[in-house]
Amino acid sequence: MHDGKDREPLVQTVTSGRVAEDDVARAERAVRSVLAGVPGRTASARVTLTVLGEPAPPRPALAQAIVELDGRRLRAQAAARSLPEAIELMQHRLAHKASWAA
Known about the structure:
Elements: E1 12-16, H1 21-36, E2 42-51, E3 61-69, E4 72-80, H2 83-101
């Protein structure tokens, strides 16, 4: 939970495949940074990070965030060649959606 004033929201993270702890921390920071800039109450935040195994498609890294903000569910996802790139794309998409929801 997050009331938008004094606490960072709890971000639940689920991983699949070879996901480094640094990428988990990066994704959680990305979601928190978006939520810090948006007024409102965050009821939940969940991140799913996936790295597909061999044979890998051209964009094997997937990042998805689902956030419940003031009763609205926002979902942003991205696929990229690397997990840091997918997380950055997901963060931008979530920020865009959160700005419309505010």
